[in-house]
Amino acid sequence: MSRHPVNTILTQLGGISFHTANSLRSVSSAFALDLRRTAGYMVADSRGRVVGRVECPMYGTAPDVPDALSVRAGFLSRRRRLVPADAIEQIDGASGVIGLRVERESIRSFL
Description:
Blueprint: E1 16-17, E2 23-24, E3 42-44, E4 50-62, E5 65-72, E6 80-84, E7 88-92, E8 97-100, E9 108-110
Parallel strand pairs: 3-8
Antiparallel strand pairs: 1-2, 3-4, 4-5, 5-6, 6-9, 7-8
């Protein structure tokens, strides 16, 4: 009888490893692109590097449809990155991970 760890999200088998340069291996899309319910999701760039966690959706052109996400890099970090909706490749609702199609350096930062 094989035993699986209770929390596989933070293990190498789950795809996220905090021990090897904060990398993310794969993200499978589970839901449609709905940015309103992504607060707290982890964001990874196209190379699998962790960008940060979603703080809140950002609204611009329409008052009820978010155009971008505000992503904070660390717990005490004041700087945030503005991730536009068209830079998002996949959202995995099961593990709470958002995969981007761009690299971390191409994302604009703001205060």
